[in-house]
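Query structure, 97 tokens:
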């Protein structure tokens, strides 16, 4: 299967909307964040970590028009989220809200 990695129109819009120095910093930060999340995926078997990393990857990919990657990340996040949530984690979240 062959598809375009990036939506050129989305990237061109970002180029128009962001000043060059800010744009370069944002792109660099995105690469760093994507690498960190990819490393998390490569080193975990924990469904919650997989879901969290996939969520970040999906959001970053969508921001920069990498729609195919974003769609796969959303599917991966949903698949990982189907596993039961740890009761202690759920209790901790309830304390926050």
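Result returned for the query:
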């Amino acid at each position: 299967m062959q598809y375009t990695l990036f939506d050129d129109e989305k990237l061109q819009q970002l180029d128009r909307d962001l000043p060059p120095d800010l744009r370069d910093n944002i792109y660099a930060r995105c690469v760093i964040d994507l690498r960190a999340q990819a490393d998390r995926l490569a080193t975990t078997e924990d469904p919650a970590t997989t879901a969290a990393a996939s969520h970040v990857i999906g959001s970053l990919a969508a921001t920069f028009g990498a729609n195919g990657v974003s769609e796969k990340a959303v599917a991966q996040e949903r698949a990982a989220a189907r596993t039961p949530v740890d009761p202690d984690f759920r209790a901790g979240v309830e304390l926050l809200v």
